[in-house]
Amino acid sequence: MRLRLALVVLTAGLLGGVGLIAHAAKTAKVRGPYLGVALLAQTLTIAQREYVETVSSDELLIGAVRGMLRALDPHSSLLTPEDAKIFAQDLEGKFGGVGLEVSIQGDDLVVITPMPGSPAQKAGIEPGDRIVSIDGKPTKAVDIEQAVRMMRGEPGTKVRLGLWRKGEALPREIELTRAVIKVEKVSSERLCPG
């Protein structure tokens, strides 16, 4: 079966938001799941050849796999070696960071809660705050692993967060100093005297 593939790649350019449109049309004998592989290979080739910046094939392929897994459900994700290190630190319950639990809601990075005694709590960050940038980089459509990686780091180093709170006209920027964050595995509270 002959299948005509028409591929259009739209990417945002860096200068003045100029877009780049690359078009490749090819006649190929492709069936079943291999159609997707051919499409991925064509997209990779065009992106590396035509994008305004140099991008590595590893970076693009990791992004493609992350996107594919994100399409399944919010709990499926790819763990790179760096992500696996972060995951191991989470299991240990101790890491360098600002002490925020975050989630993705739509395209927004949203604070679930600041951890008790953390730099984030001391800075007044509240549940529901939107993190619009990390060190000047927009977080729109960033995945959770990237956001966590950007906020974590060696204790004593600094990170700038752009925060928008409901009711505020504009985002504000705060600078936090990373600290050792210890995650409480169990917390308790006495509800009645006794």
Fraction of residues in helices? Answer: 25-40%
User: Percent of residues in beta strands?
Assistant: 25-35%
Total count of helical runs of at least 4 residues: 5
Please state the overall shape, judged from the principal axes of the Cα atoms.
Answer: elongated
Number of strands: 10
- Category by helix and strand content: alpha+beta
**Would you identify the regions where 5 or more consecutive residues have pLDDT less than 50?**
1-28
**SSE string, helix = H, strand = E?**
EEHHHEEEHEEHEEE
Mean pLDDT over all positions: 78
Measured distance between first and last alpha carbons:
77 Å
Radius of gyration using CA atoms only: 21 Å
Largest sheet: 6 strands, antiparallel
Summarize the structure in short.
It is built from five helices and ten strands; from the N terminus they run ββαααβββαββαβββ. By secondary structure, the protein is α+β, with helices and mostly antiparallel strands.
What does this structure look like?
It is a single chain. The protein has 194 residues and is α+β, with helices and mostly antiparallel strands. Helix content is 29%, strand content 31%. It has five helices and ten strands. The protein has helices at residues 34-50, 57-72, 81-92, 119-122, 144-151; strands at residues 3-12, 19-28, 94-97, 100-105, 108-114, 130-134, 137-138, 158-164, 172-177, 179-182. Strands 4, 5, 6, 7, 8 and 9 form a six-stranded antiparallel β-sheet that branches. Strands 1-2 form a two-stranded antiparallel sheet.
